[in-house]
Protein 1
Amino acid sequence: MNFEENQLFSGIAPDQVDRMLPCLEASRRDYPAGKLMYSYLSGQASAAVLLEGKASVVRYESSGSRTILESLSPGSIFGAGLDFHTEILGSVHVICDTPCRVLFLNYEKMIRPCSSACPRHLDLVQNILAILSRKSRLLGERVEVLSQRSIRDKLLCYFSQLSCKTGSSTFLLPFSMMDLADFLSVNRSAMVRELRSMREDGLIAMTKREVTLL
Amino acid sequence: MNFEENQLFSGIAPDQVDRMLPCLEASRRDYPAGKLMYSYLSGQASAAVLLEGKASVVRYESSGSRTILESLSPGSIFGAGLDFHTEILGSVHVICDTPCRVLFLNYEKMIRPCSSACPRHLDLVQNILAILSRKSRLLGERVEVLSQRSIRDKLLCYFSQLSCKTGSSTFLLPFSMMDLADFLSVNRSAMVRELRSMREDGLIAMTKREVTLL
DNA sequence: ATAAATATGGTGCAAATGCAACAGACAAAA
DNA sequence: TTTTGTCTGTTGCATTTGCACCATATTTAT
């Protein structure tokens, strides 16, 4: 199996990866865009790593509204053992935004040192560590944005994160207006209204999906 | 140094821990309740583990409002390399709720395999992995709550998490009303108002800090 | 090219939330 | 005990947000 350059197996030779996979109860799958890739339900694999593609962790409320809980990119780790847990309140799923390649794993097997068969298991653990710390940093950012009390503050906080990451006050939004609203967990038309008002107040400039913080 | 039973060094003999500490650039500190323990600023230790006590990661907005970003308990890991990053928008600090004992560490040194001096370094990495995955699970829960759109839904989501954890529909709130509001990132009086209305609607019962989901 | 479907921007109105202020409860300190 | 300070519950009012529409732009399918 060829995993090319991905964070999970970086530094481990392909033939050694092959020997490790059974011991992790690993199974690789491909999904087309728009497909449901994973549900946070018991009986599902406890962990998964996105090898290729983009996907979103979304919750559909009984009211019909949707929330984007997390955006996944190659190298992202997710699963019932790691992040969300299904509440009775709504169902949480992972949906592919683009065609995706995923590796499902047994989380318990992954983190415990295994008997002998896997000489590179500890390299794997190091890699998972790097992936997990990135994840908690991203979730921390998410908490920062969502804990802002007004739509304007949520937008400003999110924009300043993007600006920080790109190192420029001008950046491209990775979302459509609808998805951005679901990501910030606010009403779409209220958000558009607020964006207009922020433009009028001279806080931002915006053309299409290109935003500049002023 | 005696770290008793804490997650970071579990499974590692005390004398071996002592030999590892310098290589992690570790320094232990004690703080009284109410004290500022850590700030998310450059120049600070990149990681820290709470050994004893309880603490809160809080942000103070320029508007004066406060947000509790995370609640830390013994075994929690935090720090600039791992979760929040200082935005221009407000300052993020860790404040002791009770007297605390903290271990500051160099995160980079901690996760990289070191030359030779530390035979148990890989056990340490395994332990950090467990701590980190718990952290991302907690942050995921936090995102679930904060992404609820109304105060009522935030409360219900948080209550059902507590109910889930205790395995009972009756549980004790770990917060005062003021802190709960800052944790849910909503106005305190609006929250109290909503709690009353939920009681009237027969959704919950409440006496002091004891809540029952109905 | 045309039609259909979907995304965006906008508005009035209702509902939810925030804010300020106050009184009583409770706890800590003198 | 009294005093002081903090927490809680409550209310009226201003502001924000959500919601239900609609019109137009943009994309996708036929």
Protein 2
Amino acid sequence: MEMDERKIKILKAVIRNYLETGEPVGSRTISKYTDLNLSSATIRNEMADLEEMGYILQPHTSAGRIPSDAGYRFYVDNMMREQQEKLDKRENELNKKEELLLEKVDRVEDLLKNVAKTLAVNTNYATMVAAPHKNGRTIKFIQISQIEKGKILAVIVLEGNVIKNTIIENLTDIDTEDCLKLNIMLNSTVAGLALEEINLAIISRLTAQAGEYGMLIRDILDAIAAAAASEDDIQIYTSGATNIFKYPELSDNTKASKLIYTLEEKKMLANLVTDSLDKDSDGDIKVYIGEETPVESMKDCSVVTATYELEDGAKGTLGIIGPKRMDYEKVVETIKNIKTQLNDAFKH
Amino acid sequence: MEMDERKIKILKAVIRNYLETGEPVGSRTISKYTDLNLSSATIRNEMADLEEMGYILQPHTSAGRIPSDAGYRFYVDNMMREQQEKLDKRENELNKKEELLLEKVDRVEDLLKNVAKTLAVNTNYATMVAAPHKNGRTIKFIQISQIEKGKILAVIVLEGNVIKNTIIENLTDIDTEDCLKLNIMLNSTVAGLALEEINLAIISRLTAQAGEYGMLIRDILDAIAAAAASEDDIQIYTSGATNIFKYPELSDNTKASKLIYTLEEKKMLANLVTDSLDKDSDGDIKVYIGEETPVESMKDCSVVTATYELEDGAKGTLGIIGPKRMDYEKVVETIKNIKTQLNDAFKH
DNA sequence: TGTTAGCACTCAACTCGTTAGAGTGCTAAC
DNA sequence: GTTAGCACTCTAACGAGTTGAGTGCTAACA
């Protein structure tokens, strides 16, 4: 069967209406509230076709129709294309900048928490923001200093000004001058290298050079390795989990609990992040509908994600999680907006 | 009316039974399953008395009885006293150490997350752990160093080895020697002071001493102030929020959503933390039942908290949040256990 | 050939009355 | 003081009946 103009109009009308009301929508409603001027009977015939084609379905025989995943997919694709066309047409004509929603904050961590919250408040859905992440960051600067007898502070600054620090317990004492020498030695050898590039050869050379401080150097390198590890697991901030309860179709006990559990267990969100980082090569916004999401517990939801990028190339993901019956247009708009703001914020 | 031995036995039986089944318990059940050898009619009379005294209540006329907040209170106080007596009797006789449940971890932050999780898994309730917090921490060590042109890294180590760091944008360049001098100057002036003790007099003296680097010193002091601020809001880790759904009396939509919201908005838990830090002067475990909790959204729950203490005197709180119908004995036992482990962990 | 009116049919949701069962309070007897 | 017995109350579960929204199909219409 073919999809003609009229069918598209009816499908859109069904989806729009369902998004608004959340109730299955019947043929009479469509006949009354569209400019098609067709009777309910004709609409019924068309709807039977649309159902056969898999775009809509009936919860039960004598109910109206609701969109299927495929129906939403069609709607979203259509909508995105139209939006793109609209954008192309007026180019940068007015590109109305919405006022900056994000408070100014100093620390990246706080900024991202803020983004998660702002998104949650604005969209009324659950949100997640993954911190920027980059493989193979290089070491920019290392500094060790003795803060008291037996305790040495090691500070490691990675590319992109990511700071890591540890306190190392050290049995032997170290005087200020030696400390200075060690610092110079460490920096001249390790600075500029990626964490992965520190191999055995480098380690043994450093240890040898350090003489009596060989053990200490080992400890420091261990600390660097630990920094690498803690850099590896992606930090994720979530917000608005309780928004889930606003949507009856998600708020029955088992579904809600699974969803909230996923939001709590941030490791599980990694799927979502990596998935959209992979596919999102064109930097666009991705919409996952129902079964399309890579996370099991979100099969009854839709997920909209976008990636943002730092100057240094590190990429992060942000996204919202809501019911399939979601105001896609508004969400995509909002996410696009926040994404822009975030890119700007990192560019100062 | 007086509370005699028999009434106490019946009250305990009602509560025990209700904790197990979650159903209102009737007179016949009590008559069958206690060693009192009384008929249901007698039990009924006693239960009528207990109801009049406010320890139990009926959801509706023809149902069994459930414990009231006062009933739980009586039960818990009684239980705690008995436990204490038992403990006193056998002194340290066997003091069976349960195996260490906590994985060894390096960073305090991870340790506390771990505690929250372990508690949640072990008790099947929602849990929270507040990071140790101490007012008036003194500064132990400050170090600034230039990591690249125009960017200066400031590291501040507070008492208890709490490390803070910031990157300061600095327009004027600074050579290594001057940097050293500034460090010495800063440390000799500020080290040993509490954050609050840095007053205008000290600031202006430092600024004057620093000469051309006066502005930089100001920036560094600002960074210290920021560190103080970020130290001020208590870090709280939560876990097991979804456990709430396991208890039907809490899992209706509005209640669950409020509770989860509170667990998400960690600031609201501050009440709970400060409250138990205040009252918990004897270092014991506190049980809040229903209306007793200082947090609005937990009026339908019970909360059990304990404080732990670091060597340096900083105190933190841990607690579990569950239904009033909670296995108090097991929970108190578990919390006591974790508390001991935590105290030990910080003592190495 | 596409569109429409009409009609029989289906199904969920609601209402209402009935019943069963658990539990109580009260009274009178032990 | 304790107990058996009985009338009473209230919820939960069940089932029948009703309503209303919506459908599919057919036949007539433009």
